[in-house]
Amino acid sequence: MKTAKLEVLSNKQVSDRYWHMVVDASELQAEVKPGQFFNIRCGDEYIPLLRRPFSIYQINKHDQTLEFLYLVKGKGTQRLSLVERGESLDIFGPIGRGFKLQTGHGTILLLARGVGIATLAALAQEAAKRGIRSVAILSARSKNDLLAAEVLQGFGAGVYKVTDEEGNSDVSSVTMLMEKIMQEYEIEAAYTCGSKRLSKLLQNLTAQKQIYAEIALEENMGCAMGVCFACVCEIHDTEGSPRTVRICKEGPVFALEQVVLT
Ligand SMILES: Cc1cc2nc3c(=O)[nH]c(=O)nc-3n(C[C@H](O)[C@H](O)[C@H](O)COP(=O)(O)OP(=O)(O)OC[C@H]3O[C@@H](n4cnc5c(N)ncnc54)[C@H](O)[C@@H]3O)c2cc1C
What we know:
Bound molecules: flavin-adenine dinucleotide
CATH topology of the largest domain: Rossmann fold
Shape: globular
Strand content: 35-45%
Order of helices and strands: EEEEEEHEEHEHEHEHEEEE
Strand order of the largest sheet: 4-3-7-1-2-6-5
Helix content: 10-25%
CATH superfamily of the largest domain: Nucleotide-binding domain of ferredoxin-NADP reductase (FNR) module
Oligomer: single chain
């Protein structure tokens, strides 16, 4: 894990609120895994001072490129959206523990809300490469925000879309949808990102059905090196004792059964 300057190959607005960036990763020495992230300097100016964390959205080994999908939220991401093709991006990473992909013959379930899909898309890409089928539930405010649906379908994933706009993204509707999917497919493992509400639901269902599940957690980060303790969360360790962990260092991916979701 170290800093590098990678050339931006494109940085385009893909919907009202989301941007998609492709960088040349040929200079990157480290192997990048789904679920890991980079801490990115959004501009050369003094403000925003802190780097911002972004998951890896797509890993293209053949082309030696990496892709990011990001929601323009505040100062950092607004500045990032101004970065132009040909400029270099100051990145630190890859950081953290990625997903453990089960390699049996079943299907994996992905449950993502909003920009959480940016984190799970790389996993769907890796699953497709290993011949593992994935089924995804994508939840968002509106259809406009369901950006990665086609990308996932391109990996052969079955995609179910739910939105606040259509009124089918509430917990009870998603519960029914998940029950239906679990009857239809032999779900071997489940992965989630982007919503505590949906993660709690998945935590309950996977515990009942004894399905292995993981969550990628997101929190404001400072150093992303495990030093500042800005991004802590509570987990129960394997003996069931409560423990405070750093999302940047011990995560961002954790076994879902261990995470305390408040
Ligand atoms: C592991 C991980 C992966 C992520 N992946 C993605 C992704 O793929 N796509 C995506 O869109 N988003 C992702 N996010 C969320 C993304 O990092 C935030 O949306 C982004 O940092 C917002 O920055 P901003 O300046 O635009 O917004 P703001 O809301 O303005 O920034 C956040 C605010 O919090 C402040 N802040 C940040 N860190 C701290 C801190 N440690 N202590 C105090 N204040 C702080 C900032 O200074 C800023 O004011 C991820 C987050 C994590 C933790």
